[in-house]
Structures are given as C-alpha cells and as structure tokens.
C-alpha cells in the first residue's frame, strides 16, 4: 500500500510540475509577443520586459524536463540542459536537426499523428510514449506540446516538454507484477483454504467462499462481525487472550481451533493468523488462513478410543495371565504335596514287595509282585 501511495504522490507531483512548466512556456510565448510590443515603447519597459523574459528562460533551462523548441516542420531550434542530460546530445549536435531523430522507428507514425492533431488545434498533454536517446536507450516519456507564437500571435513552432518517466514506468511495472502475484496468491489461498481478512479491531472485512461454506453463514452475515460469531465455547478465555496478544504485537499466531457453524455443527480448523503492519510497525489488518481438519481430529479421536480400548484389554490380559500363573503355581504345589504324601506309603509297599519276592510263591503270585513293583 505504501508503494502505491508513493507512486501516486510522484505522479501528482509530476502532473503539477508539467502543468506549471507548460503554463510557463505559454507565458514565455505570450511574453515574447509582449516584448515585441514593449520594444516599441519606453526604454524602461524594454528593460523590464527583457529582464522578465530572461528569468523565464532561466527557469526553463533549469527545468528537470526536456524542453525542445522546434519549427512547425519539426526542425529543432532550442534545447535545454535537461534535454541534453536525458537524450545525450549537446545543443550544438541537435540544433537544426529534425526532431524525428528522437523518435524510435516504431513510434514515428504515432509522432506524426500527434503533430497533426496539434496543428489542428487539439491539446497534446501528458501523452505517454517513447523516445530514444543517443546511445539507443528507449526513454519512457510523457509528452506535451505547447504552441510558440510570433508577433501577430500566429504559430511559429512548438515546444515539446518531455519528462523521462522510465523509473516511474518500471515502478508501475513492479507494482503491477506485485499486484498480479498477490492476486495469484489470493486465488490459490481461496481455492484451498478458509480465508478471512479483519481490520485492526478484529472486524471481518473479507470472507472467501470456503469460509461461508464451512460456517454456514452468508458473506453479508460475516462482514462487520468478529470471529466470535463462530466461537464454539470449547476454548478457555486464556486461549483467545494469548492469541490476541500475539497478533496485536505483530507476530504470527498458529493453533487448532474448534468452531461452531450457524446450524450448530462443530468443525475443527488449523489456523494461522498473520498481522499486516503499517509504517509504524502496528497491525492495520489481519489475514486468517484456516484448513478444515475435522476429519483428522475425528480420526485422532477414533485412534485414541481404540488405543484406550487396547490398553484396557491389555490390562485384562495381564490380570488373566497373572491368575493363570497363580493357578499353575497352586497346582504345582498341590501335586508336589500329593506326590510326597503318596510316595511315603508307596516306599513301604515296595519294601514289602521285595521281601515277599524272597519267599516261596507260585508263579502267578510272582507275576502280581512284578507288576506292583513296576507300578511303583
């Protein structure tokens, strides 16, 4: 915005100075006529007129704009210091040359049309065109033509007032490029993000289509409101106070925000708020860029629920495993006890079997003893 203001101010200053210069040239032309009349009058009037004409001529010579006097058929007869600086020719080199030496080939038809319009009495003022310097550099120019008159007020020639606006045109080109880049960036943001612009008080001054769609509010309902219109009440006051303190100090703030739409539905947005600063470093507007992350937050909630459920199941399994281990230990202890309790009388029985095997028994009885011994 500051660049636009500077460019506009420079353009205004230029127009004022050209108006003054053109007026001055007209004054010189009329004064030259007056001088002719004055020369026929008293000596004092002659001296005064000559002095005044000298001051006017000095002003033209000191002008920052090229002032080129030419005959009606386009021969250069006057050349000021600014013309020499802008075009690189000395007065001696161009006096008597056609003014067309300053016109690029592709601009000669335009120059002829301007001259024809001028000779028909049309005003030629602040026409943007191009001229060419001695070294071939094209000079972006603002051209005005001022008639020069003779004793009988008939036209004897013209003064071309040319301002070099090359730097101005380059600045304008840069501004146009910046504007185009800004428009492209805004278009890209509008296509893929939820965008709102707020003034220094936080009042919404622009809302894109995505903001309207997700919030269910029309643009007319949003403009002039602050973002409390979509406040869900989910976040504490301290959350918003910290956000406002950050952007009011000129810093960028980012965070995840739960908003509420006009129909009562809630939606999550990943939000970045960027303050735009004036020449004093104070925010004059804020741009909020958001992306809808409702599905992501829902997925996170589902994953968290699944994780909680898995954690609970794991605890249940750990407890069940502990109980199984405890049961196994109890079984082992029981079997060890039972084994001890059974083994003690069995040893006695096996001892008796060994004794019986030493006594005279039938074959059938020996068979019983062998089976009993193997079982022990």
Description:
By secondary structure, the chain is of the alpha+beta class. It is 55% helix and 22% strand. Helix 1 (2-39) packs antiparallel against helix 2 (43-62), helix 1 (2-39) packs antiparallel against helix 6 (166-192) and helix 10 (294-356) runs antiparallel to helix 11 (363-375). It is rod-shaped, with a radius of gyration of 51 Å. The mean pLDDT is 82.
Question: Which key phrases capture this entry?
Answer:
11 helices, five-stranded antiparallel sheet, 55% helix, alpha+beta, 376 residues
Number of strands: 10
Mean of pLDDT: 82
Which sheet architecture does the biggest sheet show? 5 strands, antiparallel
What sort of overall outline do the alpha carbons produce when their principal axes are compared?
rod-shaped
Kindly provide the radius of gyration, computed on alpha-carbon positions and rounded to a whole number of angstroms: 51 Å
The SSE string, one letter per element, is HHEEHHHEEEHEEHHHEEEHH
Low-pLDDT runs: none
| Helical content band | 55-70%
Distance between the termini: 107 Å
Please tally the helical runs, counting DSSP H or I stretches of 4 or more residues.
11
| Class by alpha and beta content | alpha+beta
Across the major sheet, the strand order is 2-1-5-4-3
- Taken as a percent bin, the fraction of beta residues is 15-25%
């Amino acid at each position: 915005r500051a660049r636009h203001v500077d460019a506009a101010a420079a353009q205004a200053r230029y127009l004022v100075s050209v108006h003054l210069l053109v007026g001055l040239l007209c004054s010189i032309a009329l004064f030259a006529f007056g001088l002719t009349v004055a020369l026929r009058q008293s000596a004092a009037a002659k001296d005064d007129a000559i002095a005044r004409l000298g001051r006017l001529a000095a002003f033209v010579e000191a002008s920052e704009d090229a002032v080129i006097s030419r005959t009606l058929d386009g021969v250069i007869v006057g050349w000021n210091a600014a013309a020499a600086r802008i075009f690189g020719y000395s007065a001696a080199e161009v006096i008597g040359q056609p003014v067309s030496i300053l016109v690029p080939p592709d601009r000669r038809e335009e120059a002829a049309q301007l001259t024809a319009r001028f000779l028909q009495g049309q005003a030629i003022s602040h026409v943007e065109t191009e001229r060419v310097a001695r070294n071939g550099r094209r000079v972006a120019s603002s051209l005005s033509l001022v008639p020069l008159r003779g004793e009988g007020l008939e036209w004897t020639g013209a003064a071309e007032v040319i301002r070099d606006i090359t730097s101005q045109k380059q600045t304008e080109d840069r501004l146009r490029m910046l504007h185009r880049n800004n428009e492209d960036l805004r278009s890209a943001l509008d296509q893929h993000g939820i965008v709102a612009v707020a003034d220094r008080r936080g009042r919404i001054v622009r809302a894109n289509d995505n903001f309207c769609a997700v919030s269910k509010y029309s643009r007319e309902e949003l403009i002039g409101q602050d973002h409390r219109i979509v406040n869900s009440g989910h976040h504490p006051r301290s959350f918003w106070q910290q956000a406002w303190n950050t952007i009011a100090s000129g810093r960028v703030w980012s965070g995840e925000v739960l908003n509420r739409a006009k129909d009562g539905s809630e939606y999550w947005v990943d939000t970045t708020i960027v303050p735009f600063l004036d020449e004093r470093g104070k925010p004059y507007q804020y741009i909020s860029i958001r992306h809808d992350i409702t599905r992501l937050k829902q997925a996170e909630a589902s994953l968290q629920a699944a994780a909680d459920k898995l954690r609970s199941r794991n605890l249940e399994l750990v407890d069940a495993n502990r109980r199984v281990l405890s049961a196994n230990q109890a079984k082992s202890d029981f079997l060890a006890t039972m084994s001890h309790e059974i083994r003690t009388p069995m040893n006695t029985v096996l001892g008796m079997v060994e004794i019986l095997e030493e006594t005279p028994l039938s074959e059938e009885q020996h068979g019983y003893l062998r089976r009993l011994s193997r079982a022990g």
